[in-house]
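Methods — Computational structure assignment.
A single polypeptide chain was analysed. Its primary sequence is given first, followed by the predicted tertiary structure written as structure tokens.
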Amino acid sequence: MNNAASAPGQAAAGPVPRVGLLGTGPWAQRTHAPALAAHPGSEFAGVWGRRPEAAAELAAEHGVKVYEEPEELFAECDVVAFALPPDVQAGLAVRAAAAGCHLLLDKPVATTPAQARIVADAVARHGVASVVFLTLRFAEPTAGWVAEQAARTGWFTAAAHWLGAVFPPDGTPSAYADSPWRKAKGGLWDVGPHALSVLIPILGEVTEVSATRGPSDVVQLALRHASGAASTAVLSLGAPQAAAGVGLELRGTAGVHALPGWSDVPGAYGKALDALLDAARTGVPDPRDARFGARLTEILAQAEAQLPT
């Protein structure tokens, strides 16, 4: 592991950063691996997975090495990208940081505050960079929209919804339905980080949270922010196909502003890698780092504790 990191989009002054991928599921196949293979400022080095046959297949698709053990990947890579369930990710992230690798994490970082803090502490202790891939914070035009709204003041309230049809009532198969952790934790944990990742930079830190359940796995959050603004977020992976969708509306002295649409998720993942390489090169932590990811886990755990089991 040579710990190389050159400026995103520029020719490397030294060795090109090598990136290894942990995970082989649908997101790894459709987003992570294609984005890493297409990234101009790094080298996609190889894949490790808990299912060796799936790792071999994904590695062969992109002409990269398949690793038999995570430590072998850590030893040969500068960056580790994660496409694993959160509580599997957390333990491996600590080991990767100890090996000196920069971390491109998935959300949520973990599903307990203690685990998430251990990851953030490992990043700080070993002096590596970290970024959590939160789609709306890297995709365009949403990333630019968030920055524009965060620069404004006078927000009064916001209403967000992320209603996925991964587990719809009619049982229609989804490519992402074969996910035990999503079945167990639901929309609060899978799409909740996305909503919070937009609300917090615009309205400020969450100071109060309450949560209630609705039909299926619907969870509604009511939040108070450091700015004084109030917001709500309705989250689910079990919405009917016809009701699925994502939206966020802000209201304040600047008027009413709605989150724009986005589409290029692999492109957004490439921008997350750009941000990580920039943080590694400059030593300046990215605002969407493991510490921010740990804070998201704390808020979600606080909400979950209020829900009936």
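Note: The chain has a mean pLDDT of 94.
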